Automatic annotation (TrEMBL):
Gene3D superfamilies: Aldolase class I, alpha-galactosidase from lactobacil brevis. This is Alpha-galactosidase. One of its GO terms (molecular function) is alpha-galactosidase activity. One of its GO terms (biological process) is carbohydrate catabolic process.
């Protein structure tokens, strides 16, 4: 590839190759051992034996074969490839893998890397660093590799970082990857030549994530997938990678319907009478889903009561069917919350060790939680009865599946603890699929204390996903905008919590944040005044008029001048486009300035909501 040519997806495919480490083979030298398992002797032995548009075949002459599968996905915004790697043991002896990358691409041209940082209630912060800042400049004789390795351990895959990496060169070409990573994962950037990287990722290696996998003769193992693409901007790359995902969205949820979740109304204390009051307040206002969140089960303190899923009869006399029926009578689809993988300290199953995930032979305990072994047939039957049975018998059409702590590095099982963890989480995904088979129209919302599971493999199993647990702070628009880089806005559920003491400006600020994804209301809905409801209705109408742009469009601009999530200052502008029509959402934070409206000069304003005329105000415009 000539250095003055533009780096392309074809160049990336030429650089695609296997990275693997087998037990008993030498680890990589040149001071790399302990930093990376890439470029090991195991990988060097594999030679290309067959190649076509969909698969590359490699063999090492020792009875081991690797298949790198490449599925081309054309989106309205560009082309991506879905890549996975299969290792086949054709030898007469068992072999143990210590590392097997989903993808590895050499020769990636780059001068800077883009990553997305994340913590609880602070998801998606963009972090851009030059190779020099990362200390990824080659050694003087190009011998010792420079390595930047990052990832996550546990069953909450989005902590510290999203499983996403983009490498941009000085010409503006951006190579990027998004991992299908529901559990532990790792991404690596390795430098031996100036402004040139080997980028690899997938499951964590043995050093990083305690992952090993033993294959008997004739057995094979397929890695999770990775999406790769090359585009001419970071936002275009993100549009392609998210559009290349294939979420199993319920046919019921195809219209961008608005939800109401009562959690920020009752704070974990729902009851028949309280939910009935909410349903009465929402009747005829165009709300599609009314979701009953945590607290409908157990006695008190829902946090410590997960696992039994027995209705609190004091709060819901006669069970959950009467309130589900009442919600339907008001023209809405009833929804209900479960944290189906967890068993908390007050559950009668907390000490049912034979059915719980273990580490070192003991039930794995995190705070006040333990975890069902989702591979256990007894557990599957139990959850079929308690979860699927309740959904069917009560007529719920929406389920919010939460997950509020992580199993950490791994658990007991037949392989390394990292691989055992992967198997447990895959069993959870199988239960999601069973939910859809049993209830084909069921709307599934994935939540993990907000955004801890915002990765492609979980997103493809649900209709919507909670964007964050940041329910009311002023940083909500920042989080919601940043998630456009990794989550389809049509799946990203943004909460607009409305309070009876809110000013009109605050209500508009919250509703405008909801325009950055799927709108979900909560808060003091029964207590809002007629004047407040008039403004809310205006905002809901605007959301519906923008729904196609939110669902089908491409985000072409995100500008945010605030460095802080905690105390945001300055302004934010996000613009999304569909067939020449654009949605602009403006938010002003503390110490803000009058927005620059030059982007509207000469444009036809189709619709406008609110006015960003001071600190912590917002407005939205649809224009051509």
């Amino acid at each position: 590839m000539a250095q003055n040519s533009r780096y392309s997806i074809e160049d990336a495919l030429k650089g695609l190759h296997p990275e693997v480490k087998l037990l008993k083979d030498p680890y990589p030298g040149s001071f790399a051992n302990g930093l990376t398992m890439c470029e090991s002797e195991s990988a060097r032995l594999f030679k290309l034996t067959e190649q076509n548009d969909s698969v590359d075949v490699y063999e090492d002459g020792r009875g081991h074969k690797i298949l790198i599968r490449k599925e081309r996905i054309d989106t309205p915004f560009g082309t991506a490839y879905k890549v996975s790697t299969e290792f086949i043991n054709q030898d007469e002896n068992p072999c143990t893998l210590e590392m097997l990358a989903s993808f590895a691409v050499s020769g990636v041209r780059a001068s800077r890397l883009h990553r997305l940082m994340s913590f609880w209630s602070a998801e998606g912060r963009l972090k851009t660093e030059t190779l020099a800042e990362l200390h990824l400049e080659p050694s003087w004789n190009r011998w010792a590799p420079r390595v930047e390795s990052f990832g996550n351990l546990g069953s909450m895959p989005v902590r510290r970082y999203f499983p996403f990496l983009a490498a941009e060169d000085d010409s503006g070409s951006v190579f990027g990857v998004q991992l299908y990573a529901p559990s532990s994962w790792q991404l690596q950037a390795i430098c031996r030549q100036p402004n040139t990287l080997l980028i690899a990722g997938g499951l964590p290696d043995r050093d990083f994530g305690q992952w090993t996998k033993t294959l008997a003769p004739g057995e094979s193992f397929v890695t999770p997938s990775a999406l790769i693409s090359v585009q001419d901007s970071l936002l275009k790359l993100s549009s392609v990678l998210t559009a290349a995902q294939r979420p199993d969205v319920s046919s019921v949820d195809s219209d961008m319907g608005i939800a109401f979740n009562e959690y920020c109304t009752t704070w974990g204390n729902p009851s028949f009478e309280r939910v009935k009051q909410i349903a009465d307040s929402l009747e005829g206002r165009g709300i599609k889903y009314l979701v009953i969140d945590a607290g409908w089960f157990g006695k008190d303190n829902w946090w410590d009561s997960t696992g039994d899923w027995e209705v609190n009869e004091k709060r819901f006399p006669g069970g959950m069917k009467p309130i589900a029926d009442y919600i339907r009578s008001k023209g809405m689809i009833p929804g209900i919350w479960f944290e189906l993988e967890s068993v908390s300290v007050r559950s009668k199953h907390f000490n049912s060790a034979e059915h719980l995930v273990k580490r070192d032979g003991l039930p794995l305990t995190v705070g006040s939680r333990r975890f069902w072994d989702m591979e256990d047939p007894w557990v599957k039957d139990y959850l079929r009865e308690r979860v699927i049975g309740l959904l069917k018998s009560c007529g719920f059409g929406y389920i919010k599946i939460d997950y509020n702590d992580t199993m950490g590095a791994g658990c007991d099982g037949p392989d390394g603890i990292g691989e055992n963890l992967r198997r447990k989480v895959e069993a959870t995904k199988d239960f999601f699929r069973e939910l859809k088979r049993e209830l084909p129209e069921l709307v599934i919302e994935s939540c993990s204390s907000g955004g801890h599971r915002l990765e492609p493999s979980m997103l493809e199993l649900c209709s919507q996903a909670s964007f964050s647990d940041a329910h009311e702070p002023s940083c909500i628009p920042i989080i919601a905008a940043n998630l456009h880089r990794v989550v389809r806005p049509s799946q990203s559920q943004i909460w607009a919590v409305l309070r009876k003491g809110d000013s009109d400006k605050r209500i508009a600020y919250s509703l405008c944040a909801g325009l950055l994804g799927r709108l979900c209301l909560s808060g003091d809905i029964p207590e809002l005044s007629l004047e407040q409801w008039s403004l809310v209705s205006e905002g809901l109408s605007f959301y519906r008029s923008a729904a196609d742009i939110i669902k089908y469009g491409r985000t072409e601009l995100i500008e945010c001048s605030s460095d802080s999530y905690d105390r945001p200052t300055g302004n934010q502008l996000l613009i999304r486009e569909l067939n020449g029509t654009r949605l602009a959402v403006i938010h002003r934070f503390g110490e803000s300035a009058t927005p620059d409206y030059s982007f509207l000069e000469g444009k036809n304003i189709i619709s406008r909501f609110s006015s960003a005329d001071g600190d912590f105000t917002a407005e939205a415009v649809i224009y051509r």
